[in-house]
Amino acid sequence: xxxxxxxxxxxxxxxxxxxxxxxxxxxxxxxxxxxxxxxxxxxxxxxxxxxxxxxxxxxxxxxxxxxxxxxxxxxxxxxxxxxxxxxxxxxxxxxxxxxxxxxxxxxxxxxxxxxxxxxxxxxxxxxxxxxxxxxxxxxx
Length: 140
What we know:
Elements: H1 8-20, H2 24-27, E1 28-44, E2 51-57, E3 63-69, H3 73-78, E4 91-99, E5 105-112, E6 118-120
């Protein structure tokens, strides 16, 4: 059986590409702020990241469908989110950082829910992310 041996550079590039997959800077521009108000069409609570889909109308009157990548379900739970937080038809305002490829995709930072609450929705590496909370001590 013949074994393939890869040069160290190939292994390094592969490892860098994999680690960049979940990094904010790989896909989003921290200088490209977006704010979208519209109607939820779908909210998926899946690993490795939740996704929020919002239909809106742009300033020129054209309809647009935005996709917002969010943090992991576990991270969102720690920030006050629930799996059933948003439903199809709910009005929301999402602030975030636009995709580098200029598509209607962004990384959500703040989501204003129908009841007026604002929750952080991004990755741990999203600019403005709240500090991680220290684990609570159990009382005895």
